[in-house]
Each structure stands twice: as structure tokens, then as C-alpha cells.
Amino acid sequence: MVPKRPPLLVVAAVIKRDGRFLIAQRRTTGSFPLKWEFPGGKLETGESPKEALRRELREELGVEAEIGAEIGRYECDYHNFRKVTLLFFDVPVYTGEPVNLAFQQFVWEDRHRLKEYDFLDGDLDLVRRLVNGQILPD
What we know:
Blueprint: E1 8-17, E2 20-25, E3 36-37, E4 40-42, H1 49-61, E5 64-66, E6 70-77, E7 83-91, E8 93-95, E9 105-110, H2 124-131
Parallel strand pairs: 1-7
Antiparallel strand pairs: 1-2, 1-4, 2-3, 2-9, 5-8, 6-7
């Protein structure tokens, strides 16, 4: 019997500017091509979730970020992949203008239009809560 692997821990940033949220579309290559997500990624050995998110935002968007409170935590079982535990953090402050270093594209979108995008399954509940104004309302 193969031992079960623990869920993969993934962190994501909820960045809001002028009433709009930064969302990113995955590239055509790799897993889950062209799905939308909040920027972030996997933890590296020895990193805390906030350290990992700070690094990921530097690598993906070229910004230095202040990581705020955890605003969501969900477990998602992606078919033919492993379970993922997603931790979403508010990013209230960052320096530098975001540039696309890792995505097909990224956009700043109004919370009411987020539901129009094809998000990764693990992001859907957070999107619903943002759209409904349950977290980070205008």
C-alpha cells in the first residue's frame, strides 16, 4: 500500500487597488492551463506561509509585499493530482508596480465581475465570498 501524501500547502495573495482585485491567468503550459487564480505558489523547505507568499510575489509580479491577515483556508482535491491546502492572505501594502513575470496575463478586476472568470476550483469559494462582499468589501 502506498502511503498517502500530505496535502500540498499553497499560498495566494488577495491584492486590492482602487476597488479592483489583481487576478492572474495561468500560462498555456503546465498544470491547469489558462485557469484564473490569485497570485502565489507552493512553500519551499523552511519557509513560513507569509515568507513563501512574499517570495512568490517578488518572482511573479516583481513587487515587495507586506503580507496581512489570513482571510481564507480551503482544501481542494484536484483530480489526478494531490490534495491542496490553500491559504489566502490579504496584501494591504506593496511597493513597485506589478509586472507580469509568470502568467499568460493579469488584470485588475471589479469584485462583481470575478465570477465571470474560469478560476481554479480551489479559488471558487473565496471568489464567491469576495463577490458577495463577505470579505474585503468596498
